[in-house]
Design a protein that fits this description.
Blueprint lengths: L2 H11 L2 H10 L4 E2 H5 L6 H13 L3 E6 L2 E6 L1 H30 L1 H5 L1
Antiparallel strand pairs: 1-3, 2-3
Pfam families: HTH_20
GO molecular function: DNA binding; DNA-binding transcription factor activity
Protein name: DNA-binding transcriptional ArsR family regulator
Amino acid sequence: MPNQWLDQVFKALSDGTRREMIERLTRGPASVGELAQPLSMSLPAVMQHLQVLETCGLVRTEKAGRVRTCHLEPDGLRRAEDWLVGQRTGWEHRLDRLGGFLDSDEGKRS
């Protein structure tokens, strides 16, 4: 998995507004207007946030007439989750080995 993509995803998710948009989209597709409604910002600002989410593959938009509908892209979140799980698993193994060493006779003598 390219680091650049991962950097983009975590940068996108580092913003509270974008996380709020992702959370809304977990309940189903929404128009840009529906996403903008609870936010205290202009429609162009909402569009800029959507563009960031779309560029890194977390959101997909489609336009039908004058309405742009946004959809969550679960594969983008899944790929980020897979990376996080891999990191967590590595640390858990290291900590388990350290715990085993500390519980061993050799660790108790140190």
